[in-house]
Design brief:
Layout (H helix, E strand, L loop, with lengths): L1 E2 L2 H9 L7 E9 L8 H10 L10 E6 L2 E6 L5 H4 E5 L6 H12 L10 E9 L3 E9 L5 H10 L28 H33 L22 E9 H11 L3 H19 L9 E7 L12 E7 L7 H20 L3 H21 L10 E6 L7 E2 L2 E9 L8 E8 L2 E9 L8 H16 L7
Length: about 450
């Protein structure tokens, strides 16, 4: 039995019927040539047969005196966690997205381990899909993506068949009997040692908020229709964009890929809100989660920092908008570069405390610290396979909250940047229009930089 860490407890306390607190992913696969007619059925049976469940997939919640703990589930039901569905003919992508939108709006059962996998057959062009969701208290989006990456293989073949819940933990030295206590003492020491530096950084941020035009903090977001209360229904839209084109634009403007991604989102949101005569005069503020994990750390729990970025939606010129976004993000990069991970976590907690209290209590529903969450997770560059089925695309699915009705998540795969837009179906109508506006925004930046049109 182990206690749920404080950040993960927040995700548990935030969960209500209208705001499920799980992250997920949709992966699209091709069925191999000459596969039998019941190929997907056999795949599901083989997945369910992998029943040596590894942590954290074997853990469920137990409460003692109001405090949540993780305990091992001794009544694990594999058929409950691994489900087999089929689309009605002809199995269009829009039908697949409608199905996973509905599934993503459902709460996970807290009496069981907090994850589910759906294998969906009948997708047009001889394809099938896998939709997976993990509660955010179980793992953050970065670690979820790394777990999903590890069960896929660069080599096709049935002998490489693996499932996320049976991946062995990464090799680690055998713990000594006193190592847990020592680790706790070391963690406490690092947190205490971080306090003076955190206090200095908070003072510097307070000073910069008054004197540095590039400072963007968690109290500058304008009122916006994206920040309405949400229902329990979801709408998911997904599409891929050429990474080669995005890198070419970044090089032309002396920016990073992430800067260009934010500029694309800014342009799309600016046009979407203008269509509804709802574009605020002040620029929208995006909250960007940044992983503090090591490259080989895909463990459970949550370990992220936050950047507040000015999306410059009040700027009409696309080049000037990109420059303003870059300056805003660079401010936080410089600030965090001088801090330890413990100092960053403490500073984020202090700066985000008012927003977290507001989300938990609803005391000031009209006040928002940011307008939209934009999360960009690096993904695999090689073609991956689930057994002998080639993965054609992977699309992240995240969380929306009361007051935060749209979430934009991205992951790279091969030479494509895959966008996953999760929205409250009622609060953000016609969210699929944003996909077209993202495409138009990329065209606009290429034209501004006088780059050749994509062939």
């Amino acid at each position: 039995m182990s206690i749920v860490d404080p950040i993960s407890q927040i995700f548990l306390r935030l969960e209500r019927r209208n705001q499920p607190m799980h992250v997920g992913g949709l992966q699209l696969f091709s069925i191999p040539e000459h596969a039998p007619a019941d190929y997907v059925h056999q795949l599901v049976d083989r997945a369910r047969a992998q029943n040596a469940i590894q942590p954290p997939f074997d853990k469920r919640l137990k409460y003692r005196f109001g405090q949540p703990f993780w305990i091992e589930d001794h009544d694990f039901d594999m058929e409950y966690h691994v489900r087999h569905l089929a689309l009605p003919e002809p199995g269009a992508i829009r039908d697949l997205l409608a199905l996973v939108s509905m599934l993503h709006g459902g709460l996970l059962d807290r009496a069981r381990p907090l994850w589910e996998v759906y294998v969906i057959e009948g997708v047009t062009d001889n394809r099938f899909a896998i939709y997976t969701k993990f509660h955010h208290s179980m793992m953050d989006g970065i670690s979820a993506m790394r777990v999903l990456r590890r069960f896929l293989s660069i080599d096709p073949g049935t002998e490489h068949f693996r499932v996320p819940w049976q991946l062995p933990p990464r090799a680690q030295a055998r713990p000594r009997p006193w190592s847990a206590g020592l680790a706790m003492l070391q963690s406490g020491y690092r947190q205490a040692a971080a306090l003076p530096g955190t206090a200095r950084s908070l003072y510097a941020a307070w000073y910069d908020a008054r004197h540095d035009p590039d400072f963007t903090g968690p109290a500058e977001a304008p009122a916006c229709i994206l920040n309405r209360s949400v229902s329990g229904s979801r709408r998911f839209a997904a599409q891929g964009y050429s990474m080669t084109r995005i890198r070419r634009v970044a090089e032309a403007f002396g920016a990073t890929v992430n800067d260009v991604v934010l500029a694309l989102c800014s342009s799309a949101l600016r046009r979407y809100l203008s269509d509804q005569d709802a574009l605020p005069r002040a620029p929208l503020i995006a909250m960007l989660p940044v992983s503090l994990r090591d490259d080989d750390d895909d463990g459970a729990g949550n370990r992220v920092a936050l950047i507040y970025a000015n999306l410059a939606t009040d700027v009409a010129d696309p080049a000037e908008r990109l420059a303003a976004i870059k300056r805003s993000v660079d401010y936080w990069k410089r600030r965090y570069k001088r801090m330890s991970a413990e100092q960053i976590m403490a500073m984020v907690a202090a700066m985000s405390a008012p927003a977290g209290l507001n989300l938990l209590s609803g005391l000031a529903p009209s006040h928002q610290s940011f307008n939209v969450v934009i999360s960009n997770v690096p993904g695999p560059e090689d073609t991956l396979y689930f057994g002998d089925a080639e993965m054609l695309g992977m699309y992240p699915m995240s969380i929306v909250l009361d007051g935060q009705a749209l979430n934009i998540s991205l992951v790279s795969y091969r030479d494509t940047l895959e966008f996953g837009l999760m929205a409250c179906r009622r609060a953000v109508p016609s969210v699929q229009n944003l996909l077209k506006y993202l495409d138009d925004a990329l065209d606009e930046l290429e034209q501004t930089a006088d780059l050749p049109a994509d062939s």
